[in-house]
Amino acid sequence: MNAEQFNASHPVGTLVFAYPGFRPEDASDARRLVTRTRTEAQLSASGDPVVWVEGEGSYISLTHVDPVAEDAWEKARKAETAAQPPEPTSLPKTVREKVAGLLWWSVPSGTDEEAKARTNQLLDELTAEVRTAAFEEAAAFFDGLADAEKDQNSYRARVMRGAANDVRRLAMKAAT
Question: Quick check: 95 pLDDT over 70?
Answer without folding.
Answer: yes
